[in-house]
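Why predict the complex rather than its parts? Because the way molecules touch one another can change local conformation, and only a joint prediction can capture that. The input here totals 537 residues.
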Amino acid sequence: MSAPGVLRAAVWVVQRDLRLAARRPAQVLQPLAFFAVVTLLFPLGYTPELAKLRAIAPGVLWVAALLASMLALESLFREDAEDGTLEQFVVSGQPLTLLLLAKTATHWLLTGLPLTLMAPLVGGALGVPFAALGGILSALVLGTISLSLIGAVGAGLTLASRRGGVLLSLLTLPLAVPVLIFGARATELAIAGDSLTAPLYLLGAVAVLGVTLAPLAAAAAVRIGLE
Amino acid sequence: MSDFFSMGGYAMFLWPAYAVTLLAIVINVYTARRDLQQARAEARRRLAASRAGTTDASDQALRGQP
Amino acid sequence: MDWTWLHKFGSPPHVYRLAGLLTPWFAWPAALLILGALYGGLVLAPPDYQQGDGFRIIYVHAPSAWLGVMIYAVMATAAGVGLIWRMKVAHAVAASCAGVGAWFTVVSLLTGMLWGKPMWGTYWVWDPRLTAQLILLFLYLGFMGLRASIDDTSRADRASAVLALVGVVNLPVIRYSVEWWNSIHQAPSVMKMDRPSMPFDMLAPLLAMLLGFTLYFGAVLLIRLRAEILRRERNASWIREELT
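Output of the joint prediction:
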């Protein structure tokens, strides 16, 4: 009997995670609700004037997206580590890097992508013009992909530690700052109607770097964390 | 001499900067040496304890006693 | 080729003794260089035609920034060596670097702020190099925090090594950010590959300070390393000979 191919294993991982998420919609919706609440705090607590909100919209959108992503990261590896599934991944003989990439990709489908799709609503509440949405969505897609990948490294590293949550944020934040900066810049340019190719390229570069390197680092981290 | 201390009017920024740096230099040396002292003291204590032959459980286990 | 000399660096007692012997050779030259550079920078160097005496902050700011970045490189390299070749001593070196590195990153940020206020009119600008330095500080804190939160020394070593290596991407950003972006921060004037653009009597104290700080770090590292090795070696027999 031959062992299943890597691709089949990866697909299996994706399907499993999607099925598990379907059983617990609350866990998937929480970060999204958080994102909505944080951004909506600004019109309520700061000012209802759309012009002023538009000025801070880039920063608010991206900080909220970053915080929501970090909230969601807790669920990336923790449960699988606790019930032994992650250990099975490690000893399975399949490349751990690819399995973790599959997990991270699914995680993005369940958090980063919905977050991005919420941007038109949330952006509208912050006075973002309709024309800017295309650019903002592109930036968010690339940015949330990077955030999921960077977060996977942090999530792997904190498996071994006693205080997971806060430390995870401390570890992920420094690496996520470039995404924040480029993303906010792209949003700013989109709102102003200028070309945002420069920050988009940079976001793309970070995402590519992330896809190639982060799963490797995450796999190393998970192996250490599971001992 | 007061010319030197006023540093062309930048004294308010320059001297605190030097002070902060000096502070870091001193603190790092001091804590490093104290760290070494403490580590040596701890190691001596552990050596004294193991040489004196304490009668705790692990020691008994080493000698094959119940 | 006989590699035994290299293998000796894997032996804790050997490194412990070597570190003890070398410390004064780093400490005294460091002290002399720093004191000499202080005199040279504060007294001998002429005032800058643009910044007057205010430029003299460079003699503490630049070496601190250099230390922050260089120590991280040493820390990440040692961590990498420890991770790949499974050398405990290398992990001990990495652990010994973190505190000093974090301190001097803080100093470079503070002295930078004190330099920025009179020169640019503001304590802080979110320009790439300053932001990258702040990220560097968080990387140090994350490294130390991760270590502290994992009880098992070996796992703590390896997990923090992965973190240190991932953070290395930040270093080129710090170094090249002033070239890649039009930044308020000065373009490199010392580390350019061609001749530096500072006049010699301003440059000499700076180079002396840089060297002095580097040797100072060496001395502190050696002291910390000895403490770290003692703690890790627990009840090894060589300790008995060393301490009595």
